[in-house]
Write a structure and sequence with these properties.
Two copies of one chain form a homodimer. By secondary structure, chain A is an alpha/beta fold. Chain A folds into three domains: 3-46, Orthogonal Bundle (434 Repressor (Amino-terminal Domain)), CATH 1.10.260; 57-157 and 290-319, 3-Layer(aba) Sandwich (Rossmann fold); 159-288, Rossmann fold (3-Layer(aba) Sandwich), CATH 3.40.50.2300. The first copy, chain A, has helices spanning 3-10, 14-21, 29-42, 48-55, 73-86, 100-112, 128-135, 159-172, 188-203, 220-230, 244-256, 290-306; strands spanning 60-65, 90-95, 117-120, 140-143, 153-157, 178-182, 213-215, 238-241, 266-271, 284-287, 316-319, 322-324. In chain A, the strands form two sheets. In chain A, strands 2-1-3-4-5-11 form a six-stranded parallel beta sheet, with helices on both faces. The first copy, chain A, has a six-stranded mixed beta sheet with strand order 7-6-8-9-10-12, sandwiched between helices. Chain A starts with a helix and ends in a 10-residue tail after the last strand. Chains A and B meet through helix 4, helix 5, strand 2, helix 6 and helix 11 of A and helix 4, helix 5, strand 2, helix 6 and helix 11 of B. Chain B binds a DNA duplex through residues 2-4, 12-19, 21-22, 26-28, 31, 46-56. Chains A, B: Pfam families: LacI, Peripla_BP_1.
Chain lengths: 334, 334
DNA sequence: TTGAAAGCGCTAACAC
DNA sequence: GTGTTAGCGCTTTCAA
């Protein structure tokens, strides 16, 4: 069923049907009613594909992230989704597992699809140079990833602030011997938080030997292993983790070594994934506003799409983390 | 950059470019090379929209689910995604919160978009009648939801088996006074599991008074409240929950009432969401193969799309749950 | 093997 | 206020 058919049945031209469909006021109310009646009768829905052909615009956006199965990402995805729909966009979801190849495949597919824009949460090692090439001139906003060059817009959480909050919290509790289980050295996010940690410890005049910052892969298991390693250092009274899943692993390692959280060792997470509120003890953690990260990313993108092509001003937005104090951190006993 | 431009630069017709792009063998190798060279040079990517206009097919699928933020759904979404990509489809993600209105809005949008097919994980109270009307003749497969009529294909977990496994496990541990925290009475999934529970308890010759099956809303908090309620009945030694989040809430309620899991009360969950393996104690639960649910849904859909329009055979697939015995269930003491 | 041309369903400029 | 028509970028006959 297409417009021509509707036009025929209503005894008008396709142009008139088009006008009715688009709410063009310059159409005789009687004709409008007839057309609408026919549309109702045959349950007609206009073809967005055909419309796209004219406009050169699809109202489709691509959302590229590592893995929707990782509890950190659904919040972002939902934020993007909700904001997108409210502005008339649909979004195609792509899971890359941070593989550059998968990312390239998706980028190619999304270009074929002529998406209007892209939100990139992925953190593969693809260079921004290569990326620019892959996406040509499709508007992009990076989410949870600071662009090296200033050729991309971005939204991120202020991780320096986040790490500082966590350290300050621990220091306020009397901790001085603090270790960190950080992210992978291969991911910017991993290196970044570790560096902030070192800086802030130094600023606070606290010790921070290299072996107390152990790079891991963000998974529960690696947190468990790293904590076991760290616990050999009997001076340590607190462990700060670069994400909540590793913090969960770390807590379990503490328990299995016969110690208690938070009595013997305080553990602080990062992200505030839903589960962190249900662990035992409930996890003290730095909350990232994932939903807002998504919403903001979409807003920036939508703004870029709405504005004229010419003013390609890049915008960098930084959102504030918040410290959620729960039960996995306590006054130092020693 | 479009095909005409490529054709011009390569000194051929658009037809030839099209043939090269589609791997048509009947094209002079020399011309092919020239065309490919030009394509490389200008970094041209064919326009899927235009292609769709001819084919009448978009290779886009819609995935409608309640809330990607709920840990039960990402597994399904990832399964659908992965299987879709491997078959050349892209998927548009839609969160409905189980609101019939939102669902309708999305259905409309997806129809406009001329998606080739639909996977519906949502469980709003929209009647299948209405649904059929909304989606016209777009192929659909229901996921995690058994169709009332046989007009839809579907993939579901065998919940009867799942509930039976859980009850058998508990009975094997000597429990006889078993309560259930079930899903909402407004959702089929809620009613279904509660009914299976009653049946199976009856078959086993065990008591199952009405007040021991309390309908909740699948959230942590409601599990907590319901468990508090149930704990007043001192005879109860085990609580079976219709999902893991409520089981987590139930465990916390047990602890806060001064009792122990599993020593005093055994708690069994349902779903096996990732966190169920990290709770303390680790949760004994019935695992739903969410990823496979998604993969299967997509396979059924892809098969339907590949087969001729005429043979509209509906297929119903039932996947087996598995019991994951962890630490929240133990031998009765009383 | 290659090209010309019609057409997919719609929009928008133009003429009436 | 309404209809005619020329595209949007591609695929696909049909001739050559």
């Amino acid at each position: 069923m297409n417009m021509r058919e509707i036009a025929k049945r209503a005894g008008v031209s396709t142009a008139t049907v088009s006008r009715v469909l688009n709410g063009n006021p310059k159409v005789n109310p009687e004709l409008r009613d007839i057309v609408n009646k026919v549309i109702q009768e045959v349950n007609y829905v206009p073809n967005a594909i055909a419309r796209s052909m004219n406009h050169g615009t699809t109202s489709i956006l691509g959302l590229i992230l590592p893995d929707i199965t990782n509890p950190f990402f659904p919040g972002i995805a939902r934020g993007v989704e909700d904001a997108a729909i409210s502005k008339g966009y649909k979004v195609i979801l792509c899971n890359t597992d941070n593989h550059a190849d998968t990312e390239k495949t998706y980028l190619r597919m999304l270009r074929e699809q002529r998406v209007d824009g892209l939100i990139l949460v992925s953190a593969s090692n693809m260079s921004e140079e290569t990326m620019r090439q892959m996406i040509e001139d499709i508007p992009v906003v990076l989410c949870d990833r600071i662009p090296e060059s200033k050729h991309f817009s971005s939204v991120v959480t202020d991780h320096r602030k986040g790490i500082k909050m966590a350290v300050d919290h621990l220091v306020g509790l009397g901790h001085r011997e603090i270790a960190m289980i950080s992210g992978p050295k291969t991911l910017i996010s991993g290196i970044e938080r570790a560096n902030y940690f070192r800086d802030i410890m130094a600023e606070a005049g606290l010790p921070c030997p290299e072996q107390r910052v152990v790079p891991c892969d963000y998974r529960y298991e690696s947190g468990f292993i790293a904590a076991n390693q760290l616990l050999k250092d009997k001076a340590i009274t607190a462990i700060l983790c670069a994400n909540d899943m590793m913090a969960l692993g770390a807590m379990d390692a503490v328990f299995e070594s016969g110690l208690q959280v938070p009595d013997d060792i305080s553990v602080v997470g990062y992200d505030n994934i839903p589960f962190s509120n249900w662990s035992r003890p409930r996890l003290t953690t730095v909350s990232q506003p994932t939903y807002l990260l998504g919403v903001n990313a979409l807003e920036i993108l939508a703004d870029a799409l709405a504005s004229s092509e010419t003013d390609k001003q890049q915008v960098q937005r930084m959102l504030n983390p918040t410290l959620i104090v729960r039960k996995s951190s306590a006054m130092v006993k020693r």
